[in-house]
């Protein structure tokens, strides 16, 4: 292990597919050790994981970090948002967690919007119009389909809350992750009593919402994690808010993240209230806001198309007029939870490479459509778009985003930005700094800038037209996959 200039901190990213841990030098941002362990997720419309495997994966990832983890002075957990974790009186899971991409709760989400005042009222009170991803809709689904599980539930947590509580023994969350539940009011910055009463959720079952920069506890004795006794634990946050910390994001800089889901977001000092539901009015982990749009189908959907075609994911070809809407798992943006993929314009001369490029175009289309909505009106449109996530290293993804956005694109060299953001939050506990300022000191957003090219408006218009024409088909419920 390299000699560290300052104290060591640990940042954790518990995502859909795996848990990753980084041990970082708080003085320089140097990653001195890292570990990773996988999760399993069910397939189909119901996406579930046993929370206990997140803990096992965290322990395994930390063990891979060796002595560096034992030397760490503070830790923070960033995690996948929206997941519904139900615990019994002993703190054990009542059932597997319902994950963010479980769309079975779409009917419950629609009813909630209608029953509590409509989209505008939801946007003004909660900051977002809930869809199937939101935790409130999942709780209603569970109450209707598994009432015995609801009766057995003594605590309700989000994925990052679950791991933080396993570390400290205290039930806490943060404003960033709480803002994705549907039961936290962004205007009041508190749990919304009307919503909780309506869905039959006792607020006593929910974790306390910690303040930004608060120490929520210390690592308990008697656990498998290799931390020293007294290691400080930060509030943690949702994955997108953690990535924003990891980039040291300032207001006005847009981010496009290419992962299992696709997201586009920016930090804002203004509380978002979009009644169309396209933009979720999330809080960030510092005290500002993180307006965000999310798609369910991103890198995995495109990789699936490449596999079906027997192509490498980079084997795209230009040209052709084929359109592919890769909504393989339903979709969140646009709000089409029952949708499946749509192929239009296939010709005898269409090549497999053109079909693969169409999948990239279809995946990026919805994200770029929301880009202007997440930015403040006075934001500089010439600011480079920060491209992050697993797909950001792919040339086909980079060129597709450049061509369809018409903006300069910057690809930060730092990877694992969710874990880095969590590490910056942990470092802030020790130094008293704003975690975003810590990340800027670490220079995490540095990376090559790809110059802007002319925006391919014709392709965007063609996809928009196909989406509009196919809407009745995409909205049709076809049953469980």
Report what the structure shows.
The protein has 481 residues and is an alpha/beta fold. Helices cover 35% and strands 18% of the residues. α14 (395-405) links the parallel β22 and β23. α1 packs across α7, α10 (239-246) packs across α15 and α11 (299-309) packs antiparallel against α12 (352-369). The longest helix is centred in the last third of the chain and has 18 residues, at 352-369. The N and C termini lie far apart (48 Å). The model has no long low-confidence stretch (mean pLDDT 94).
Keywords summarizing the entry:
about 35% helix, alpha/beta, single chain, 24 strands, about 475 residues, seven-stranded mixed sheet, 17 helices, about 20% strand, globular
| Number of helical stretches of at least 4 residues | 17
Q: What Rg do the Cα atoms give?
A: 21 Å
Low-confidence stretches: none
- Number of strand segments: 24
Residue-averaged pLDDT, rounded? 94
Structural class: alpha/beta
* N-end to C-end Cα span: 48 Å
- Binned strand content: 15-25%
| Fraction of residues in helix | 25-40%
Oligomeric grouping of the chains = single chain
Please state the overall shape, judged from the principal axes of the Cα atoms. Answer: globular
Compile the SSE list and pairings:
Blueprint: E1 8-14, E2 18-25, E3 31-38, E4 48-49, H1 51-65, H2 67-71, E5 74-79, E6 85-87, E7 97-98, H3 106-115, H4 119-125, H5 135-145, H6 147-152, E8 155-157, H7 159-168, E9 172-174, H8 175-178, E10 184-185, E11 190-191, H9 193-199, E12 208-210, E13 217-218, E14 232-233, E15 237-238, H10 239-246, E16 255-258, E17 262-265, E18 280-283, E19 289-295, H11 299-309, E20 323-325, E21 342-344, H12 352-369, H13 371-374, E22 385-388, H14 395-405, E23 409-410, H15 417-431, H16 435-442, E24 449-450, H17 457-474
Parallel strand pairs: 1-5, 5-14, 5-15, 9-12, 16-22, 22-23
Antiparallel strand pairs: 1-2, 2-3, 4-7, 6-8, 10-11, 13-14, 16-17, 17-19, 18-19, 20-21, 23-24
Helix pairs in contact: 1-7, 3-5, 10-15, 11-12, 12-14, 15-16
């Amino acid at each position: 292990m390299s000699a560290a200039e300052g104290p060591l901190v640990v940042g954790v990213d518990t995502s859909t597919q795996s848990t990753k841990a980084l041990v970082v030098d708080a003085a320089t941002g140097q990653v001195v050790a890292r570990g990773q362990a996988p999760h399993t997720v069910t397939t189909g419309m119901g996406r579930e994981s046993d929370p206990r495997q997140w803990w096992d994966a965290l322990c395994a990832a930390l063990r891979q970090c060796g002595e560096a983890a034992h030397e760490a002075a503070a830790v923070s957990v960033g995690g996948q948002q929206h997941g519904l974790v139900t615990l019994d009186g002993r703190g054990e899971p009542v059932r597997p967690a319902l994950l963010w991409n479980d769309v079975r709760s779409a009917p419950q989400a629609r009813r909630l919007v209608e029953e509590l005042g409509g989209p505008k009222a939801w946007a003004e009170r909660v900051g977002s119009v809930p869809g199937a991803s939101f935790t409130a809709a999942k709780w209603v689904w569970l109450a209707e389909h598994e009432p015995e599980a609801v009766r057995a539930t003594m605590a309700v947590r989000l994925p990052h809350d679950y791991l933080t509580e396993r570390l400290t023994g205290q039930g806490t969350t943060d404003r960033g992750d709480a803002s994705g539940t549907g039961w936290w009011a962004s205007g009041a910055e508190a749990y919304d009593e009307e919503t909780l009463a309506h869905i039959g959720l006792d607020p006593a079952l929910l974790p306390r919402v910690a303040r930004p920069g608060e120490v929520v506890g210390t690592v308990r004795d008697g656990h498998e994690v290799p931390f020293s006794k007294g290691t400080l634990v930060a509030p943690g946050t949702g994955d997108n808010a953690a990535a924003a910390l990891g980039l040291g994001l300032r207001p006005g800089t847009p981010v496009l993240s290419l992962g299992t889901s696709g997201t586009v977001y920016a930090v804002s000092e203004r509380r978002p209230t979009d009644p169309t539901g396209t933009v979720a009015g999330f809080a960030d982990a510092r005290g500002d806001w993180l307006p965000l749009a999310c798609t369910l189908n991103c890198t995995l959907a495109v990789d699936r198309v490449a596999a079906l075609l027997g192509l490498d994911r980079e084997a795209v070809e230009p040209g052709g007029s084929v359109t592919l809407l890769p909504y393989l798992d339903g979709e969140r943006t646009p709000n089409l939870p029952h949708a499946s993929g749509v192929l239009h314009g296939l010709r005898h001369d269409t090549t497999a490479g053109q079909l693969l490029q169409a999948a990239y175009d279809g995946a990026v289309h919805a994200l770029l459509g929301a880009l202007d909505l997440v930015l403040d009106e006075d934001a500089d449109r010439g600011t480079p778009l920060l491209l992050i996530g697993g797909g950001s290293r792919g040339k086909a993804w980079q060129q597709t985003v450049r061509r369809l956005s018409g903006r300069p694109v910057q690809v930060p060299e730092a990877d694992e930005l969710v874990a880095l953001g969590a590490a910056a939050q942990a470092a802030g506990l020790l130094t008293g700094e704003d975690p975003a300022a810590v990340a800027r000191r670490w220079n995490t957003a540095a990376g090559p800038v790809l110059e802007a090219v002319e925006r391919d408006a014709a392709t965007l218009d063609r996809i928009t037209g196909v989406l509009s024409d196919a809407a009745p088909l995409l909205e049709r419920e076809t049953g469980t996959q």
